[in-house]
Amino acid sequence: MRILIFGLGYSAKRIAARLQGAGWDIESTGSDGTLEFADRDAVAAALGRADAILSSVPPAKSGGDPVLETHGEALAGFRGWRGYLSSTGVYGDALGAWVDEASPTGTGRRTARAEADAHWLAAGACVFRLPGIYGPGRSALERVKEGRAHRIDIPDQVFSRVHVEDIAQGVTLALTGNAPPGAYNLSDKLPCPQNELIEEACRLLGVAPPPLQSMEEANLSPMARGFYAENRRVANGKAKRVLGWDPAYPTYREGLVACLADGGFGG
Fold first, then answer.
1. Does the chain have fewer CB atoms within 10 Å around its N or its C terminus?
2. What Gene3D superfamilies is this protein classified in (predicted)?
3. DSSP class of residue 106?
4. What share of the chain is helix, strand, coil (3-state, %, to 5)?
């Protein structure tokens, strides 16, 4: 079996490794991939060899999905399994309420992502909506150690998260289990304030938490400010029920302990 992955990034690399372990052959685009994304002939040939495709390519800054826009003609004739890594940002601000796959999309700041999400759904893909992704080399532990962590004084603000290995498990289950097309939230079961996550990372590293600040005092980048612009809890019941997904890291607590063991934080 062979899969073509568009965009061999942080999450897609974990998915590829899991599939390789199950005997799949991998072709991919990206800086560490085997194909040039812009080479339409090479990508079309790879599509002809593939049993499945997965896109982890985000929308362009100007809008539009690069994969669909560049390779849409070749994709139109593809009859295998399709997957797309999306974002729970498509739900917008829920004022801290729970959202699931039936919740409205397209009302938040990520309208381009919501449009791409809808296009992949219309094309018969399994669309995996992901909250804050973390894992080895990309967690609150690194931010604390490097002095980049913040505690922001925003009462009642909560976020959902997912460990990268749990993403890989969910996507693999959908692919190998012939899951029906549609949206699937892959998120942990403990939405919580960002401050709680930073405080746990500090506890594990044995350092004092950073001071509590206002948004203005923290002097965050526009991208980081956008992170705090929306407030929601993401339900994962459909993925558990339909895919048989059982995350190895059901909360950030187990996930951070694993990251600590993997990350070389001694000294």
1. C
2. NAD(P)-binding Rossmann-like Domain
3. S
4. 40, 20, 40
**Burial class (CB within 10 angstroms; exposed 0-12, middle 13-18, buried 19+) of 213:** middle
Q: Which strand (E) or helix (H) includes residue 216?
A: helix 215-218
Would you give per-residue pLDDT tens digits along the chain (267 residues)?
999 999 999 999 999 999 999 999 999 999 999 999 999 999 999 999 999 999 999 999 888 999 999 999 999 999 999 999 999 999 999 999 999 999 999 987 779 999 999 999 999 999 999 999 999 999 999 999 999 999 999 988 999 999 999 999 999 999 999 899 999 999 999 999 999 999 999 999 999 999 999 888 888 888 778 778 899 999 999 999 999 999 999 999 999 999 999 876 654
Chain centre distance of CA 35: 23
Output the CA–CA distances (angstroms, integers) from residue 128 to 113, 137, 199, 228, 250, in the order listed: 12, 22, 29, 22, 17
The answer to whether 53 and 4 have CB atoms below 8 angstroms apart is yes
Using DSSP's 3-state secondary structure scheme, residue 186 falls into coil
Q: CB 255: neighbour CB atoms within 10 A?
A: 27
133 within 8 A of 89, measured Cβ to Cβ: no
CA distance 253 to 265: 17
Q: Which residues contact 202 (CB under 8 A, 6 or more apart)?
A: 144, 149, 208, 209, 210
- Output DSSP code: residue 90: G
Structure-token pair, residue 197: 């996550």
